[in-house]
Design brief:
heterodimer; A: mainly alpha; B: alpha/beta; FAD/NAD(P)-binding domain; 20% strand; globular; FAD (chain B); flavoprotein (chain B); P2Ox-like (chain B); oxidoreductase (chain B); GMC_OxRtase_C (chain B)
Chain lengths: 209, 569
């Protein structure tokens, strides 16, 4: 928003009239130069900004509907962790990011700095794409508290991180303005309540529940 | 420093004073003003104007930075209010008290969830309105717990009708003897799964019913109030005035008479007593903004500060005649604390309705009236009294994917579609009046106004625990009968207080030796003080109690107005 204002005042100084389209154009042309739009996390370290964005997109990638990055869901994870989460979750998260960085390099054989959405997707497939009958083992690991052993610890923190990350990311995504107003069925003032209607008459799920 | 009121007494003398502006205080103000009494209405909290002061009424989740979650910073002032769901949501947090400024003490855990503002908890209540019946009014006499109610259903029935017609209750006439029908506006219909559940439960269990809930949301326009728009954002303040609150439904009527003097930011510390007249003569107020102490005088005083606060005011109103608090000849003042025990219930999923959905967010689901110990066919020897359930059925949203291992494009897009149906219900369990369940004043721990704080020493006991266990089992049994899958039941009894139905601290009764109030809610020994909030309840029944406070208030006010006109008071 600050940048938009800055551009507007710049244009005002040059005597241009801005339409919303030209503002977007200016913003995009600026952002296109980087692989990822720059954003300054409040909770995460700057070096993890890319990880948070790419992992978010790997969880909820763009299809015919927007992806996590499109609606800023990854930024919400950062705000939520910084402002809403308690110190225990924050600590778990910090250790989790570290563990995930290590997992990333083992799985992709790449330095984390080069990681793109596809690499994180690969990481998720390896870590989260476990068959249904193996899933309870992971849940048990997480519910059992911090285990002994270096590898067990790394697994514990990685999965703890992924579990919390996904929960918050989904809130950031599905409860975003774009998804809530334009993708899901949005009806802020319904009027009369109707208790039993064909699902086709609504389409996608209601955004306000 | 104590500021002394220097105003001429005539300037601060009224016909009546009402302390509190919540559900019952709003009603007292309306009735007394409409009855022609010049009435001073006092509220300890800030003013909240209808609509203008509902800052979140139209906010969607995405309009709030943390999507409705309170930040750690915001939670710092809500260590106790956050024990209740709505007390830890951004949409409603401003209608819950700051615990740091309004402390209380717990000998035993007690969740005291409060709203200190004009309108009180009428802005944030659940709005479920059920009449009590003689099954309830005769209960204490029948099984010997507590004391007998001094009234019966026939005494209050016309007043239920009176308040229902004005408040506007959406509901269906179901013809259930122990949950009497009222004066209803058209009900919110059951959705497909709820209707199915109703049919199955009523076919399987001869004494059980599932009805659409009865709720104080108008479904037809009335005076300045618009009908419910099915937003279900009632507890943020309803811009249509469809949801019952003091702001929408009682205070405007009081104001329209021209008889109301309205004073927010006014803590009542005590009721003033004149030993010669043997009457209360007024109240002492602390202005929360100036800290001035001001005495106001009136011939009639209505205490509607909430069950615990009204009792606290009386306990703090000490005199030679009443060394243990005004009206406390019986020693029952502050005792017999009751609430509804919650935490027992069941939930499951429903298949076969995937092609069905609903439109709108109705302000309540269904209600399963009490079916234990209601007649000779339903007697159980496991416990006395009974419980009812509130419940509902809905299709799950995107949250269903939060705890599994899913990810990726298909996962994301599938969650945009309506999910499986779920159905659940939770019990509201009657609590017996136990003398030892009490609140008392702590003069060692003063609040920022130098007023004593309240200490709670109360708990649910064996009978409530047994009922909770039964309520969990029966809820699961009914959901199985409905055909629900993955049925799970839960019985984790809540702390007393969390039902937010505090009652009983100044009970009505027939005998001044064992009760505080008489059949018209007057203090036995101080007949010009009326107390018509939850404190007056002689037993708790299992129904949501606010409608009964409304009816008792209107009834007591009508009586007070007659006594005033006849110069008896």
């Amino acid at each position: 928003m600050k940048r938009r204002k800055a551009i507007q005042s710049l244009c005002a100084a040059l005597g241009y009239t801005l339409t919303p389209g030209t503002v977007t154009g200016l913003l995009l042309s600026c952002e296109a130069k980087k692989s990822e739009p720059f954003w300054e996390p409040m909770f995460f370290e700057q070096k993890d900004a890319n990880l948070v964005a790419q992992l978010g997109e790997a969880f909820l990638p763009r299809t015919q509907t927007p992806g996590a990055k499109d609606v800023g869901a990854h930024i919400f994870v950062d705000v939520f962790m910084g402002k809403v989460s308690g110190s225990e979750d924050q600590e778990l998260f910090r250790k989790g990011v570290k563990a995930l960085r290590s997992k990333f390099e083992k799985i992709t054989q790449k330095p984390i700095i080069d990681g793109g959405t596809m690499d994180y997707s690969k990481v998720l497939h390896t870590l989260y794409g476990v068959p249904k009958d193996k899933q309870p083992t992971i849940t048990q690991l997480l519910d059992g508290g911090v285990p002994e052993g270096k590898e067990e610890k790394e697994n514990f923190y990685t999965y703890s991180f992924l579990r919390i990350f996904k929960k918050i990311l989904m809130m950031g995504y599905y409860a975003s303005k774009e998804i809530g107003e334009n993708v899901l069925s949005y009806l802020p003032v319904p009027g009369d309540y109707e208790g039993c209607i064909p699902v086709e008459s609504v389409g996608r799920a209601w955004s306000i529940t | 420093m104590i500021h002394i009121n220097t105003k001429f007494r005539g300037e601060v003398t009224y016909d009546a004073i009402v302390v509190g502006t919540g559900v019952s205080g709003g009603w007292a103000a309306k009735e007394l003003c409409e009855g022609g009494l010049r009435t001073l209405v006092l509220e300890r909290g800030r003013n909240v104007r209808h609509i203008q002061d509902y800052p979140t009424m139209n906010d969607d989740q995405w309009d709030m930075e943390c999507k409705g979650n309170l930040t750690q910073e915001e939670l710092k002032s809500k260590p106790k209010q956050s024990r209740s769901g709505a007390g830890r949501r951004k949409e409603t947090a401003h209608f819950f008290v700051n615990d740091l400024e309004n402390p209380y003490n717990e000998d035993k855990p007690f969740d005291w969830i409060r709203g200190y503002q004009v309108g009180g908890r009428s802005l944030i209540w659940g709005r479920k309105c059920f009449r009590l019946s003689d099954l309830d009014f005769e209960a204490n006499k029948r099984d010997g717990h507590g004391v007998d109610w001094p009234i019966r259903y026939k005494d209050i029935a016309p007043w239920y009708s009176y308040v229902e017609k004005h408040a506007g209750i959406a509901g269906n006439r179901d013809g259930i003897p122990h949950l009497p029908d009222g004066e209803f506006m058209p009900p919110f219909e059951l959705n497909c799964v709820e209707q199915h559940a109703k049919e199955r439960i009523e076919a399987t269990f001869p004494d059980r019913y599932l009805i659409t809930t009865r709720t104080a949301n108008i479904t037809e326009p009335k005076d300045h109030r618009g009908k419910c728009m099915s937003r279900h954002r009632c507890d943020r303040g309803c811009p249509f005035g469809a949801s019952f609150s003091s702001q929408s439904a009682t205070l405007p009527y009081a104001e329209a008479t021209g008889n109301m003097t309205f004073r927010p930011n006014s803590i009542v510390s005590q009721v003033l007593y004149d030993a010669d007249l043997k009457r209360a003569i007024g109240v002492r107020v602390i202005d929360t903004e100036t800290k001035d102490q001001i005495d106001y005088y009136a011939r009639i005083i209505f205490l509607n500060a909430s069950a615990m606060a009204s009792a606290a005011i009386l306990l703090n109103s000490r005199s030679d005649r009443f060394p243990d608090g005004m009206g406390n000849d019986s020693g029952e003042l502050g005792h017999n604390v009751m609430d509804h025990a919650m935490g027992a219930g069941a939930g499951g999923t429903m298949e076969g309705f995937e092609d069905k959905y609903y439109k709108g967010r109705k302000p309540g689901g269904f209600y399963v009236p009490r079916f234990r110990n209601t007649n000779k066919n339903t007697v159980t020897d496991k416990f006395i009294r009974g419980y009812g359930y509130q419940g509902g059925a809905k299709r799950s949203g995107w949250q269903r994917g939060q705890n599994d291992f899913g990810f990726g494009g298909d996962f994301k897009d599938n969650l945009l579609e309506p999910g499986p149906w779920g159905i659940g219900m939770g019990g509201f369990v009657e609590c017996l009046p136990y003398h030892e369940n009490r609140m008392y004043l702590n003069y060692d721990m003063l609040d920022k106004w130098d007023q004593p704080t309240i200490t709670f020493d109360a708990e649910f006991k064996e009978n409530e625990k047994k009922m909770c266990e039964d309520a969990a089992v029966m809820a699961a049994e009914m959901l199985e009968a409905v055909g629900a899958k993955n049925v799970g039941s839960n019985c984790k009894i809540t702390n007393i207080g969390l039902g937010i139905h505090e009652m009983g601290t100044a009970r009505m009764g027939r005998d001044p030796k064992t009760s505080v109030l008489n059949a018209f809610n007057q203090i036995h020994a101080v007949p010009n003080v009326f107390l018509t909030d939850g404190a007056c309840m002689t037993s708790s029944a299992c129904q949501n109690p606010s409608l009964t406070y409304m009816a008792l208030t209107a009834r007591a006010a009508s009586y007070a107005i007659k006594q005033f006109r006849n110069r008896i008071l």
